[in-house]
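Title: Prediction job returns without error message
Component: structure pipeline
Severity: low
Priority: P3
Assignee: unassigned

Description:
Job completed but the reporter wants confirmation the result is attached to the right record. Sequence as submitted:
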Amino acid sequence: MNKYLSRVIADTKKKNACESEFLQATEEVLETLSPVMDKHPEYEKIGLIERLVEPERVISFRVPWVDDSGQVRVNRGYRVQFNSAIGPFKGGMRFHPTVTQSIMKFLAFEQTFKNSLTGLPIGGGKGGSDFDPKGKSDAEIMRFCQSLMTELQRHIGHFLDVPAGDIGVGGREIGFMFGQYKRIKNQFEAGVLTGKGLDYGGSLARTEATGYGLLYFMREMLKANNKSLKGQTVVITGSGNVAIYAAQKAQEYGAKVVAVSDSNGYIYDKNGIDVKTVQQIKEVDRLRIKEYTKSHKSAQYFDTTDGKASIFDVKADIVLPCATQNEIGIAEAKKIVANGAYAIGEGANMPCTIEATNYFLQNKVLVAPAKAANAGGVATSALEMSQNSMRYSWTFEEVDAKLDGIMTNIFKECASAAKEYGLGNNYVAGANIAGFKKVANAMMAHGVI
């Protein structure tokens, strides 16, 4: 590896010793930038990489709220504003018990390159809280969101930082946060949050965007390698927004999706998953995925909480991890390869460990990396911002066509960067390099700040 990068990685590990997810993300990116650093030694003189791995600011705050029994609860809120070289900070808010500063920093770091790849003027940021919306009433969620926004509003704005949804944050939560922001600011600043409802500035196709975008990228990657989704067996982890619309689009392309999961287990349906039923169970009824077997007798449910079963036991041509970070380690990667999969599409953020990714690449498995393949959501959020600025709304077909074009171009950028540096079809490195170049050029132009 390039000596400059080796030194920065070592220094970053010392400074962030307890932040394993952030260190994983930075190491994965920096390791692939060696050929770029060899070609551009001037980056070392201006400390470009040292600045790249240090967020512009990390905001942490308490979020007190009152539950339905009158008990005061306290959670911790975060907003990591990582890099604004090419535009205002842009990235989702995540509500989940696992949220830590390390996870927020890793997501914001990844978001910087993901947003760069879209070709749109948006920088990288991320935020959230260790609040768990599961089991909470709408009134409790409203009070929490209002308390969180009371502090968060100090640090965001449509020219500064534009949050969106993520795990645990959907239209309901965005609505509550936007309402409180509007109340405090006393103005209708539509572009300050994305993922809004259609009645107050949201965009058509935003809900479908990440899942659809993943399949648009997969379509292009497979086409470039003389393959197709038609007739292929697909396994998708997760059963949330990304997984549901990835499954829907995969089926439109002629693939058979045979398994989806949640945190308790997975369902396998040899006849193909009925996406509408999954959507009803997860998004409307807010129940567990095992409910699917009540209406579909051809399906089997496997509990994974005891570690004896894994969705990766299911044979598939294509695996789309759409749940959460690090769900595929080396053991899972070996199962996937042994079961004959030839392509991985990362719908979640960093769902594969570095060891798993390397194992896939060593075994000639095509990998569509998250920062490229799941960029459809943030790309459409940026399109929502554009519509808000114009006070205009595009049709579903118009937004979807723009999304398709963006994802097609992202694949071309990744493939072009990989080819330029002699990396073949290593789209993981290609995405890192392509995303990095635009950010680096902007940082160079701005001087040392």
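Comment from assignee: result matches the submitted record. The chain has a mean pLDDT of 97.
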